[in-house]
Amino acid sequence: MPRLEHRASYRLSKPWPLSLRWGLLAAVPIIELIGLSVCFDTLVLSKRDSEWTHLAGEAPALLRLVLAFLAAFLLILAPRIQALVGEARQFALSHLWWRWLLIHLLIFLAFCEVTTLLFDLAAAGAEIPGILIAGWAGLGLASFGLWLEVMLPMGFWVRLFSREGLALLAAMLAGLAAWLGGLFAQELWRPLTAGTFWLSYRLLSLGYRDVVHDSETHILGTPNFLVDIAPSCSGYEGIGLVTVFLVIYLWLFRAEIRFPQAFLLFPIGALAVWLANSVRIALLIAIGTSFSPKVAMGGFHSQAGWIAFIAVALGLILAMRRLRIFMKATSRGVLVEESNAAAPLLVPWLVLMGVLVLTSALSDGEFDWLYPWRIIAAAAVLWHFRGVYRGWDWSFGWQGAVMGAAVFAIWIVLEPSMNGGAKSVLETALAALPAGQKALWLAFRVAGSIIIIPWVEELAFRGYLLRRLAGQHFDTLAPPRFTWGSFILSSLAFGLLHTRWLAGTLAGMIYALAFYRRGKLGDAITAHMVSNGLIALSVLAGDRWSFWS
């Protein structure tokens, strides 16, 4: 009984300081890996004849295998994750992590020095001793092991791995399967390309008589506009996206979904996205032939794939919720009620994304001159739900502004510098506009960045996604319940929405911490407004146009 009382009192304490420490320490290996990938090209090693150097050159593939293993291991442990986090907190209370962090950094610096020597020898064509490769690998493993010690004492990891032997074995098999699946996907594009080429040709023949097609070189089009159907256009990337989407969706809503019937959605989704990809290629050629080659190869080429994926994903969700074969009868009413409560949080972002994809597809791929329509559409949806928003607590504190300034500092540090003072595409495009149109576009861009976008994105990612992943309902903006899964996944999803995914993910983590601190969504919105406002100021006053590129 005393043990239960201790746990209850512990859960009432604020979790975010320890969570912040873990979050920052978890970012250490990510930053280190990014630095290594920027400074060193393992392709140099993989071309050497030595088995040791060839193995070292395959380090990126081994890293992907490790990441797949870790993802599978966390997924298997998901039902017990809360108990494991509670156990980890007990181990972390008296852990002298900073000492181990210093040792880890020293070992990592030694690893970098040996890596530099290794690549210098490879570049000079000199023979690389096997003992040097072994020492390099040993330092890498030691660096990883020390990072585990930085996060939590080794006693925790020993207990975890000894207790979860079956989970470790299953995760290893899943990681190996993911790696083999990647190799299989590289071979799968050939038959997919042939099928995509044939169907696109048939669709194009419905509207054009003089269709040019060469099945050997995969050249397809009309005399005025020809395209080469590359492996990436065969459809396997879309099939992979739909598969990942379905895995995540079925996991989140597993309590309301019928199994194994739901597994039928995987072949249905794969077929639907492949058909949509063939239609996309035919439309691209039609636009390039009859309308504008620049629009076809610019905005439409880059956005049509996402339009197809979003359409297929929404269609699968609609089919799942409407058909009895997929959804449990007792949960339909709950889902409808939940979706109605979640609509004010999620619909503004969905509308913004839909208009973004459409306006980008209609642009030339360089300058989205229809950007103001995104802001108008999102503002209209926010106005539509104004009655709901009035009933929520929008109080905010000064700490949110400080966190927003921290996000701006991160954005500055991670922003690549422009070479030779070259102008960005955005700056060049704006300079070509008349003064009135330029001022109007900039007014919408600033208003969107500082006001509309922070509201829409925080409603969706912190108001909806973060609490949905934590298993909370949306009828009120109650303080969020911290879970590692919701914190990391919502921040990562937010980061992937941005071109600078690392800076975006770190920003998402800070906005989430602002929300956790007092349980007020207004704090996250304030942080987002401040960071975007400082970015806008640096763009207009400091000519940092790349921030908006």
Task: Write up this protein.
The protein has helices at residues 2-12, 16-39, 43-46, 51-57, 59-76, 81-92, 97-124, 130-151, 154-163, 165-205, 236-252, 265-290, 293-322, 332-361, 371-384, 386-390, 398-414, 425-431, 435-469, 484-496, 501-518, 521-542; strands at residues 212-214, 219-222, 225-228. The N and C termini lie far apart (58 Å). The protein folds into three domains: 13-163; 189-327, no CATH class; 351-549, no CATH class. It is 75% helix and 2% strand. The protein has 549 residues and is mainly alpha-helical. The radius of gyration is 26 Å and the shape is globular. It contains 22 helices and three strands. The chain has a three-stranded antiparallel sheet, covered by helices on one side. α7 packs antiparallel against α8. Mean pLDDT is 76; it is low at 1-16 and 332-337.
Summarize the structure.
With 549 residues, this protein is an all-alpha fold. It has helices spanning 2-12, 16-39, 43-46, 51-57, 59-76, 81-92, 97-124, 130-151, 154-163, 165-205, 236-252, 265-290, 293-322, 332-361, 371-384, 386-390, 398-414, 425-431, 435-469, 484-496, 501-518, 521-542, and strands spanning 212-214, 219-222, 225-228.
